């Protein structure tokens, strides 16, 4: 019972991130398909999914096509009640849906002036309109955390679909060094440290861009998330493992990690691991 989920890009597509997180964070089986969002093939890639014209979009195991992240979220929550994708408390669940819907429809200034990017941190002086969006986020996040967040670091304590919808917002705050309260900064830090978020970013970093979408003429600092273990691709050496930690297939590509060499079955497996070695449990087990 595997879903097909179609995404456009990992570094820049905030909507794609939300669609992918819905499956990955709640253990729902999926096969991921890349759509040519910046390669000019998007229409062709989505042709069999009409009337879908944007990413993400999913196809259920029984062939139903669902677009738009709110519709995808509700469809998955309905089909997988055991995953508890929304908070179980009725008051918390109602507020979580409210927050997700407002995120889906609002915060236009933050979105347009700070497009999501996971490459580095721009040093930005935000406009008054972006500051107004941040103030609204402060109100919403504080309400959720103070009323319902006692059980954990997420908006409603345990991770929920509300956190899926706000993950790209946390990435924007981090990616543009936006001024936020300590409560908001703690939430941003929790998002950036989440191993699933780190794996999404690591896979995104395997792709290069020329030109870089949405590039800005601003000072740049390194990405503010957890520091990655030193690593680099290599073409010679003797790997400690005979099989790829992800596929179990024979080693064809190698990388060095803090002086140790490990092998992988293809360039993607190698490069996503080089980008953030400790984000991958199957590789961490080798270490």
From TrEMBL:
InterPro entries: Glutathione-S-Trfase_C_sf, Glutathione_S-Trfase_N, Thioredoxin-like_sf
The organism's taxonomic lineage, starting at the top: Bacteria, Pseudomonadati, Pseudomonadota, Alphaproteobacteria, Rhodobacterales
A single GO BP: L-phenylalanine catabolic process
GST N-terminal domain segment(s): 12-78
Annotated keywords: Transferase
Organism expressing this protein natively: Thalassobius vesicularis
Taxonomy, superkingdom: Bacteria
CDD domains, per database record: GST_C_3 (cd03194)
Coiled coil: none
Protein's recorded name: Glutathione S-transferase
UniProt xrefs under Pfam families: GST_N_2
Record bears the keyword Transferase: yes
Gene Ontology MF terms in the entry: glutathione transferase activity; maleylacetoacetate isomerase activity
Statement: the UniProt record of this protein carries the keyword Protease: no
């Amino acid at each position: 019972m595997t879903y097909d989920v179609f995404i456009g890009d990992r570094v820049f597509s905030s909507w794609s991130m939300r669609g992918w997180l819905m499956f990955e964070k709640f253990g729902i089986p999926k096969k991921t398909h890349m759509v040519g969002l910046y390669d000019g093939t998007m229409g062709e890639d989505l042709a069999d999914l009409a009337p879908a014209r944007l990413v993400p979009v999913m196809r259920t195991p029984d062939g139903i096509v669902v677009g738009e992240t709110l519709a995808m979220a509700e469809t998955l929550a309905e089909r997988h009640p055991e995953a508890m994708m929304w908070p179980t408390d009725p008051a918390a669940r109602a507020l979580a849906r409210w927050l997700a819907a407002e995120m889906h429809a609002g915060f236009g200034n933050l979105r347009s002036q700070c497009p999501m990017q996971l490459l580095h941190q721009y040093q930005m002086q935000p406009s008054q309109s972006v500051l107004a969006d941040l103030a609204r986020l402060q109100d919403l996040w504080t309400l959720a955390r103070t009323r319902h967040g006692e059980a954990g670091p997420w908006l409603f304590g345990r991770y929920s679909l509300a956190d899926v919808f706000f993950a790209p917002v946390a990435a924007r705050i981090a990616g543009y060094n936006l001024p936020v309260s300590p409560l908001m900064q703690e939430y941003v830090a929790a998002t950036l440290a989440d191993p699933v978020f780190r794996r999404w970013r690591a896979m995104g970093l395997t792709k290069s861009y020329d030109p870089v979408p949405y590039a800005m003429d601003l000072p740049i600092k390194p990405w503010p998330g957890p520091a990655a273990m030193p690593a680099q691709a290599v073409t010679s050496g003797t790997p400690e493992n005979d099989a790829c930690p992800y596929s179990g297939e024979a080693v064809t590509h190698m990388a060095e990690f803090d002086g140790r060499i490990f092998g992988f079955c293809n360039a993607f497996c190698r490069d996503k691991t080089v980008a953030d070695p400790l984000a991958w449990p199957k590789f961490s087990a080798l270490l």
